[in-house]
Amino acid sequence: MPKLQFSFELITQDEKARLGKIFTPRGSIDTPAFMPVGTLGTVKGIFPEDVLETGSQIILGNTYHLMLRPGTEILDQFGGLHDFMNWQKPILTDSGGFQIMSLARLNKIDINIGAVFSSHVDGKKFVLSPEKSIQIQKSINSDIMMVLDECPKLTNDRDKLISAIKISTSWAKRCKIEFGNNKNKALFGIVQGGLEKKLRLDSLEKLVSIGFDGYAMGGLAVGEKQEEMFSILNNSVYYMPKDKPRYLMGVGTPSDILGAVKSGIDMFDCVMPTRSGRTGLAFTWRGKVNLRNTKYKNDKSPLDTNTSVRNLNLYSKSYLNHLTKTNEILASMLISLHNINFYQQFMLEIRKEIKKGTFNNFYNKYIDMF
Question: With contact defined as beta carbons under 8 Å apart, do 41 and 84 qualify?
Fold first, then answer.
């Protein structure tokens, strides 16, 4: 039964790998957890009820994009994104910080104001301040909100990394004030610092002193090598509060997830399952399958014989090859759904292995497969 307040329970550990549960008024989330990305209020190409059937317990929306379309006026009319998109489970929203980086050509940062944007949709000027980011997330009615941060591109420029921490810390304080004292919701801080351990720990210390309901590692999966990401996680995660959820933003491949779980991360999100699905790439227990490859033209076997979600086990690789080659919309729908389902089954098995104390065996079996 859902608890009335946001909370986190650490159930057990297998070395650093953690098995836990997040509680929200809209339902609980078993961790380690993968959150399908629904940037604009939709996990691309998949019906919300099918996302639910895969075992997904939470999805991610985006503050910047939902602010522009459909806008807070419409979201307020529906009481938030849940009713608007017909998804009654928890929703986490990114704050718009990633768009400050990815749309850098369209904005200018001012630590005292926020990010001054020219909309990528119609060119209109607007300010995304820390306070505005939280106000929008309140209109979305997010169960877990993120602070607005500056997420710098991959760089070795220490001055840029220090500046990003200064800005992000200042904005985090303002977000906390704007968020207020709402025990039903959660607000997560975001750690910056690039690939420098000392800067990461400095950023984390500042955020912990402010006090948040969870802590995210930002500024990773931005072009660094996988071993570099794992190194910064191994050096930093130990110092994150043990009684709060730990979230690695924008990650990633199944092997990325395995390495991060091994370091003690609890939550993940990535567009990869659906983005790959739209290009004909499937993730399976035998590795990646490129369904555009001619070798699948006469393959009568399904991608997964063990799932009945939307009858995915009844569609052959041959048929999926045909759909991808003819650019049929159904190809991206079926493969995207398969990928989300695989990711959730993958997370389920990770949780089982941690509970049994055999996670390392699972890690060793699959770390090089993806």
Answer: yes
Q: Torsion angle of alpha carbons 31, 36, 41, 42, nearest 10°?
A: -140
Residues that are catalytic: 94, 269
**DSSP secondary structure code for residue 266 in this structure:** -
The residue among 84, 75, 28, 77 whose CA lies nearest residue 56 is: 28
> Side chain identity at 1, as an amino acid letter?
M
Provide the 10 A C-beta neighbour count for residue 21: 18
Q: Return the CA Rg of the chain.
A: 20
Question: What are the φ/ψ torsions at residue 189 (nearest 5 degrees)?
Answer: -85, 160
3-state secondary structure of 34: strand
Write down the pTM of the prediction: 0.97
Pairing mode, strands 246-248 and 214-217: parallel
**pLDDT tens, residue by residue, 17-57:** 999 999 999 999 999 999 999 999 999 999 999 999 999 99
| Cis, peptide link before residue 90, omega less than 30° from 0 | no
How far apart, in whole angstroms, are the C-alpha atoms of residue 99 and residue 3? 33
Give me 250's structure tokens.
């924008």
Q: Which residue has the tokens 């933003």?
A: 249
Contact 283, 273 (CB under 8 A): yes
Which residue in 194, 232, 214 sits closest to 24, CA to CA?
Answer: 214
- Is residue 336 within 8 A of residue 46, CB to CB? The reply is yes
Q: How far apart are CA 263 and CA 204, in angstroms?
A: 16
Separation CA 258–CA 159 (nearest Å): 32
CATH tag for 7-270 (out of 2.30.130.30, 3.90.1150.10, 3.20.20.105, 3.40.190.10) = 3.20.20.105
CB 248 within 8 A of CB 233: yes
Domain residue ranges in the chain: 7-270, 272-370
| β-strand partners of 20 | 10, 31
pLDDT in tens, 181-234: 999 999 999 999 999 999 999 999 999 999 999 999 999 999 999 999 999 999
